[in-house]
């Protein structure tokens, strides 16, 4: 039954989505991330960063009075809150942008639940978040995984639509899996049989939640950044090796459960 449902979801939702991405937003295949970056704006684009953080700040403010969120964000938030086993939640959020997942999760949980949410982002995003005062006692921004992890154990290491936009995605996965965690969630990540590096084209308004805030006085324009379609075989191989050998998980009983589809979900459970 689960297999049939997965096949139906792939046919009805994922394949059409991939076709739309390929036709509208993705360009020719590049030899490397660096080669694609030469033709791209990149995620360090200061205007893009300002738009994303300003949108995120407005979203957090609006969420206090209107808790309406889209289905994709709600699905992710439910997945995050499912790891909650006590009155505290510690999350390492790789590529968490302006903290939308934190603000949504915070709005779903009771006030007596203590949260420690650490976002790993580009240096430009970290600086902009600090400048706009987005951090608080529960939310902090870091520009590296090691700086965010600090040797602590996390209830959840979370990466949504982020790993495949980095220059070295397999190294990022390896580093994320070396962090001490109880559960690992990888979602909205492009994985296919063959690896490809492409240039994804978008707009300023298409990044972050909501329209471009009027107070910025910024006109919408196109933006582009490299994206790597990860090789399923490499991801599987790296995860199996890491799950067996990672020092942070050594001596513990482990189980590995995953479902691979392009832009699908990977759960790793560490009991």
Report strand %.
Answer: 25-35%
Cα-atom Rg, whole angstroms? 18 Å
Number of strands: 10
Indicate the low-confidence ranges by residue numbers.
5-11, 18-24, 243-271
Reading side by side through the largest sheet, how are the strands ordered?
3-2-1-4-5-10-9
Q: What is the terminal-to-terminal distance? A: 27 Å
Global geometry: globular
Largest sheet: 7 strands, mixed
Mean pLDDT: 81
List keywords for this structure.
271 residues; alpha/beta; 3-stranded mixed sheet; 25% strand; globular
Question: What would you say about this model in short?
Answer:
With about 270 residues, this protein is of the alpha/beta class. It is built from nine helices and ten strands. Strands 3-2-1-4-5-10-9 form a seven-stranded mixed beta sheet.
Provide a descriptive summary of the structure in words.
The protein has 271 residues and is an alpha/beta fold. Helices cover 39% and strands 25% of the residues. The protein has a seven-stranded mixed β-sheet with strand order 3-2-1-4-5-10-9. The longest helix is centred in the N-terminal third of the chain and has 24 residues, at 2-25. The chain starts with a helix and ends with a strand. Mean pLDDT is 81; it is low at 5-11, 18-24 and 243-271.
Task: Outline the secondary-structure elements.
Elements: H1 2-25, H2 33-37, H3 46-63, H4 71-81, E1 88-94, H5 100-108, E2 114-120, H6 123-131, E3 139-142, H7 145-149, E4 153-160, H8 169-178, E5 180-189, E6 191-192, E7 196-203, E8 222-231, H9 232-245, E9 254-258, E10 264-270
Parallel strand pairs: 1-2, 1-4, 2-3, 4-5, 6-8
Antiparallel strand pairs: 5-10, 7-8, 9-10
């Amino acid at each position: 039954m689960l297999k049939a449902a997965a096949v139906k979801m792939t046919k009805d939702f994922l394949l059409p989505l991939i076709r739309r991405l390929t036709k509208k937003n993705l360009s020719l295949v590049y030899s490397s991330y660096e080669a694609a970056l030469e033709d791209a704006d990149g995620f360090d684009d200061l205007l893009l960063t300002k738009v994303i953080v300003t949108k995120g700040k407005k979203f957090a403010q609006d969420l206090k009075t209107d808790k309406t969120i889209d289905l994709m964000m709600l699905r992710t938030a439910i997945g995050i809150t499912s790891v909650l086993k006590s009155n505290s939640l510690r999350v390492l959020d790789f590529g968490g942008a302006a903290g939308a997942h934190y603000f949504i999760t915070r709005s779903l949980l009771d006030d007596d639940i203590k949260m420690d949410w650490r976002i790993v982002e580009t240096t430009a995003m970290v600086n902009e978040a600090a400048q706009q005062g987005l951090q608080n006692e529960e939310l902090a921004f870091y520009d590296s995984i090691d700086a965010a992890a600090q040797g602590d154990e996390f209830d959840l290491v979370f990466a949504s639509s982020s790993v495949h936009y980095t220059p070295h995605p397999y190294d990022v996965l390896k580093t994320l899996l070396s962090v001490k965690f109880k559960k690992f969630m990888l979602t909205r990540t492009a994985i296919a049989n063959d690896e490809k590096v492409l240039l994804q084209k978008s707009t300023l308004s298409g990044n972050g939640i909501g329209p471009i805030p009027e107070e910025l006085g910024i006109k919408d324009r196109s933006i582009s950044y490299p994206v790597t379609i990860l090789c399923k075989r490499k991801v599987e191989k790296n995860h199996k090796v890491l799950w067996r050998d990672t020092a942070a998980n050594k001596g513990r009983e482990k189980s590995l459960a995953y479902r691979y589809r392009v832009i699908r979900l990977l759960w790793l459970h560490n009991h």
